[in-house]
Amino acid sequence: MSNGDASHEAPAADFQEGAVGNPTINKERRYFLIGATSAVAGLGVVGAAVPFVRFWNPSAKARALGAPVKIDISKLKPGEMLSPMPAWRGRPIFIVYRDADVVSVLESSELNLADPESDNADMQPEYARNPTRSTRPEIGIYVGICTHLGCSPKHVAMVAPENFGGGQGGFFCPCHGSRFDLAGRVGAGFPAPDNLEVPPHRYASDTVVIIGEEEGAA
Known about the structure:
The chain is of the alpha+beta class. Helix content is about 30%, strand content about 15%. The longest helix is centred in the N-terminal third of the chain and has 34 residues.
């Protein structure tokens, strides 16, 4: 053969040893590509799963929302509601200091209330099922959310006889007019179906109350 013939045979040898058209080589490449694609896809699934795993593991902030909170009431004076308003589980907490005259009114049976005996057990712990709905008659503690449609009532000081409860003051909901006495009990005939909720709580000392822990807890 001439040198020209030899030059024409070289591509045939290259074809046998690894050219693109070789069936054996193509098969191996297909396996490689399938494996590589599967690996990348697997990483994608793992990456996509991470946000869902994080979603089902609550953050420290979310866990803290349900944790008990300590509240210092040492500066609270008779007739006042604690300010700034504390919160527990993302809900406002009303803490009011009631003087002896208010406690006397709350303990009377003359007020026109929808649930004067706090018969709805879901709205307070058993130890707060009494006329003042508290363990210390002078201190009232309530979740500051109206039981009608979730508005936040306003604290009304005892400044005029026409205030709810014979001049004792209470809580007035500006959304639809529901009124609650200073024990958080709703008046009869108002839209709110229940008294204000009393959260579980206990006193760590005379001036510190823990919201979110039952009375008597360690």
